[in-house]
Fold:
Amino acid sequence: MARSHRPKPSGAVDRPEPKGSIRTNHPAVLVDRATKIYNEDTPQALLAIDDITMRVEQGEVVALLGPSGCGKSTLLKMVGGLYAPTDGSIYVDGVPVTEPSELTGMMFQKPVLFPWLKVVDNVLLPVRTHGAKRSDYLDRAYELISLAGLEGFEERYPWELSGGMQQRVAICRMLIGEPKVLLLDEPFGALDEMTREYMDLELRRIIIRQNRSALLVTHNPLEAAFIGDRVVVMTTRPGRIAGEVRVPLGKDRPEELFASDELNIYIREARRLLELGRDNVRHGA
Amino acid sequence: MNEGVKSTATFLASLVVIMGAWEYISRSGGVNPLVLPAPTSILASLWFVLTNMFSRLAYWQDTWITLYEIIFGFLLGSGVAVVTGSLVSEFVTVRRIVIPYTIALNSTPKIAIAPLFVIWFGFGAMPKILIAAVICFFPVFVNTVTGLGSVEEEELELMASIRASRWQTFRRLKLPRSAPFVFASLRTAMAFAAIGAVIGEFAGAQDGLGFQIEFAAARLETARLFAFLVVVSVLAFSLYSLIAYTERKVIFWSATTRMQRLQ
Structure:
């Protein structure tokens, strides 16, 4: 996978931690000089990610903000083990990522629910796929569905639900296997503005309540600043880090924050970094 | 009057007009009844066939044989098609080997194979079942491959992210995804199986509805021929309805099925 032979950074180990170690000293996510080239060694070679180093601390929520085509989804999917980096290394909880792992849970722009499964069985899909008995996880599934505000919809089918409700089901499905790190790929990008803000609120509440670390990809500065403890801004093709904004607005973030002046400060700072990154590559609107 | 009653009434009215015209043409002497018997004489003949079937069990054997050939031909042909289609869609090597043969098979007029099968397998039910199966195969095969390939990139990424094995991805995602495609072809296949069984009986048989149709034709008993035609059609329609019913139960979740339920 990774061709580099650089010495490993201090946060990395060679062997997986024994199961059951809840807190480690490793960052939740460590991206170490990762590069991704599509169609390498062909005339169509495309440098999507250029030498990115970043981290997500334990219990931290990081928003990865960038314009479309900046490679932020690629970076997220590399952390999720769906794609391999061309160069560099990625660690989740200190463990090198070579393939999808039970340490991470993913959520996509589309809910990707199976219409032939009831809501509760969609939630149970990840554990059922690994041979777990339905009855062993049923209580946890009901608990998560209720946490996501979908009580009473357990036995319904996805096509009976609105887009926002479907994404709530996807949140539950991501959480059922108790991953330590949540990877969210523009999860509410297809929802309308009002539903999206409400879902941001809910998502932040669930992540904090469940005490997880998260990396969220978005192209929306408001969403990034509201959800993220830290906003990492990327430039367009090739994707590089333009800068980052800390958002020290506490763990619990109320709805009022959306329209507040204090959040606006960080949104403006994120926008400035976005524009900076855009000017560097000089692409026309 | 609601829509359903209205459309049924319109259909029945058209049926009465067509049957009336047919009856008139046959009775007026314009057409020889040997060529086109009147609907009433067809009904009389059908009555004769049915009463014989249930009172003296004559023709029962023929109906049973044909039904048997259709069902087993259908099950064999579509079963092999689903399995082959799955292997072709999962394994490149299998695809490279199998695809040319299926194209060759599809290019052969299947009816022309019937006499060959009779030579190989005799006058019993086996050649009819095989012809029915061969005709059923292609639509189900094509739709299985298309259906299994209809999964979306995001769905595959989801399955990868939850570390689903290849088999799990097949069973929990691809197979259900392909079901609407497969069922659409099963309806066609059922009609094809009926054609195959009857054709097989034409090519050489001692019983069966196809045999009775040919027998009636040879003796210019056109009304009797029509009666058997009705029996075979009712049989095929019943089997088709069975498939359509199963389809609604199994793929209740597909957009098409849901749309039909709303109507």
